[in-house]
Structures are given as structure tokens and as C-alpha cells.
Amino acid sequence: TNGMDAEGGGGGGFGDSGGGECDAMMNPDDTCGDASSLDGGAPEDADGSSPPGETTGILLRSECVDKEPRCPGWAAEGECDKNPDYMLLDCAVSCNSCPEPVVISTEDALMLEAVARYGKAQRVERRRRIPSRPALLPGELNAMFERIVNTAPGNMTDPNYVIEDGMTNYTVTVHSRPRAFGPNEERVISAERDLNEPPWVITFDNFITEEECKHLIDLGYKSEYERSEDVGELLPDGSFESVQNESRTSTNAWCSEKNKCRNDEVAKMIHNRIAKVTGIPPENSEDFQILKYEPGQFYRQHHDYIAFQRDRRCGPRILTFFLYLSDVEEGGATNFPDLNIAVKPKVGRALLWPSVLDSNPKDKEPRTDHEAQDVIKGVKFGANSWMHLHDYIAAQEMGCT
Ligand SMILES: O=C(O)CCC(=O)C(=O)O
Ligand SMILES: [Fe+2]
Question: Each residue of 331-374: pLDDT tens digit?
Fold first, then answer.
């Protein structure tokens, strides 16, 4: 089931029939559900309480509902603890996991960064209470992007800023973002607001070094570039067929554990760098899919969200972290037709966008359709890191992706 990259056509058919064992809800499993290694950088004492200084009440409201009539019953049977992956998002009222109002300092409230801080404090709080949780809860997607934008080492003006081990001096450029909340504005998290504001699209320059790019390209050759595939028909065993498709003509190689690529030192370091920047564990990322486009090759308009994974063990793809491993003389841009954004390939550059909404990280963000435009001159190399709501590696081991 690894070769998919399109919205699953048969998404709805899954719920009760196909996916039994792999359902996030039906078969709670400790190995698969444990995401407790989240965001190691958070300070132990961050508990969501107000920092020192003047404080102000900030109310945070979300569209917080139980999505299933059976939620209260499940909650009463202890499912919120046994099955947090599913329950905390889809039975949020019964599990008491709706975002809560927090109090932060006035100074912080004036800064966009405050939003990021809120996300982090909430994350630590939740981790204490439960053994495992989704990578993002409502409100944390926007907080993550805010934090990334505000902490890019290459954008720092402090001359004494020290680049951490394994990191690079990358700069961040914002191409599209939702409007930040005003200082006195109520911070509302809702699908309505999400859809009234542009989604996040950002790029990183110098995210990986030229040597690292070359190394990944070589790993691709070792794993062998093959014709890229798309999601096809639903098969009797509940998985989906992979099919060659006229809308995607590149070749690609999967950097997996099986072919000894995922544990390569450089591949591992880049997975860890992405994890550090996003705050999402490396296990939530699929193996790098290393892409090669020759002149005339392309990937036509599509979305990376896979609907049938929504309630599966791995959860949906929430983010695409795309790496450009080469310069391209002409063509090969990643174009977002609904947003009027085209990103040019450049060696070491990365592109990050969400496939889901801030208000519910299981729901598809409809506006991040994109295409890889025809390469006209030169060869384009790139790599996808598709990040999931839950531990993808564990799900893959169970055959549950
Ligand atoms: O090659 C690109 O610029 C984007 C590729 C892409 O969208 C994909 O592989 O899903
Ligand atoms: Fe894509």
C-alpha cells in the first residue's frame, strides 16, 4: 500500500467493512497507538498556566462536537484512555479534550508567537494525562507554522544564535498564511475561519546541504528509480491497488528500512531535522519517496490527502514536507492552482504545506491541490516526506496503511 499518492476514490466504503484490524478505533494496540515520544524539546514545567508578568484572559473556542452518538458510552468504558488516537478528536466532548481557554501574558498575546506557545503548553499537558495522542490537536497546525516561521535560524538577527546539532542555517519564506489574530481578538478555532483564510504554504532555503542532496539522489539510485504509481481500485483484502497513470510520469524510489535506506545516517538525520522543525515524530513520516523527472515528465494536479486513511491506524496525511534535491534549468515548478503559488526547484530548498485543517486535523484542506509542472530542461530530483496524524511506521509494520 506504499505507492499511493492521490485521494482515495473509495474513502467512504471503509468504516465498518474493510479495515477491521487496522481501524484506529476497533483494535486499540499499544505499539501502534503510542506517540508519547512527541516533541522532546518541551520544558517539563510548561503546563499551560500563565507565564510570569501581566496576564490577560484569552478565550479559545472550537467547533467541539462528538462525531458519534456512541461517544458518551465509549468514554464511560474508558476508551478515551485506551484509544486516544481516535477518541480525543472524534469524541472530544465526551473525552473532555476540546481546546480549553488559557491565560497568557499581554505581551505574549501581542506576539504571534504566543499562539505557538499555546500549542506547546497544551501538548505537554495532554501528554501527561494520556499515554498517546495524535500529532496535532485542533489549533496546533496553525501554532506549528507560527512557531516554524518565528524560529528559523537564518532569519534570526541575534549574532550569538547557535545552530543546533544536525540542523542547518535555513531561512523561511511565507507564501500564504491565515491572518494572525489581533491582540484583542477572540481566538476562534473553527472550520469556518479556516476556510475563510488562506492556508499555510512556506518554503525553507538551505534546509539541506548540497552534499545531503547528492547523497539522497544516490540513495535513490541504490533503491532503484521505478515508474511512479497512483492509488487504484479497492482490492478484496481492503488495500488499494497501485497503478501506473498517465497523469504521473516521473520515476521514484522508496527509501525504506527494507532496502537499508531509511536507516542510512544522512536519511535519518534529515528525518530527524524535519521532526525537530515540525515537532512531529519521525515515525509519523512515510519513507522518503525520492523522485526523478526527466524533460517532459510531470505530475498533474492532485491532492496528497488519502481519504480512506482517515480512521485507519496511521491516520491521514497531515503535511507534505517536500525536498528539492536539484536545480532545474527550466520548468518543474510545484504549482498550487487555487492559491496562485508556484515554487521553483532549487537545490536544498524545502516546501511545506498542510493537507488538513487546523480546526480538525483529520479533515481535508481543500485548497492545497498542486501539480509538478513539466520539466523542460535539466533533471529534477525531489523527495516527499508525507507526515501522518499517527505513527506510520508502526501502522506499516502491521500492514495497516
Ligand atoms: O514534484 C513536485 O514538485 C511535487 C510532487 C508531488 O506533488 C507528489 O509527489 O505528490
Ligand atoms: Fe503531491
Answer: 999 999 999 999 999 999 999 999 999 999 999 999 999 999 99
CA distances from 194 to 130, 143, 358, 361, 366 (A): 28, 13, 7, 11, 11
299 lines ligand 1 (CB under 6 A): yes
Ligand 1 contacts CB of residue 345 (under 6 A): no
Give the pLDDT confidence of 135-183 residue by residue, as tens digits.
998 889 999 999 999 999 999 888 888 899 999 999 999 999 999 988 8
Relative to beta strand 334-336, strand 370-372 is antiparallel
Boundaries of every domain in the chain: 1-64+99-401
Ligand 1, from 248, 374, 384: best to mutate by most atoms within 8 Å of Cβ? 384
Which residues make up the environment of ion ligand 2, defined by Cβ < 5 Å?
A: 304
94 is written with which cell numbers? 465526551
CATH number of 1-64+99-401: 2.60.120.620
CA of 205 relative to ligand 1 center, distance in Å = 18
Give the number of the atom of ligand 1 that is nearest the alpha carbon of residue 384: 9
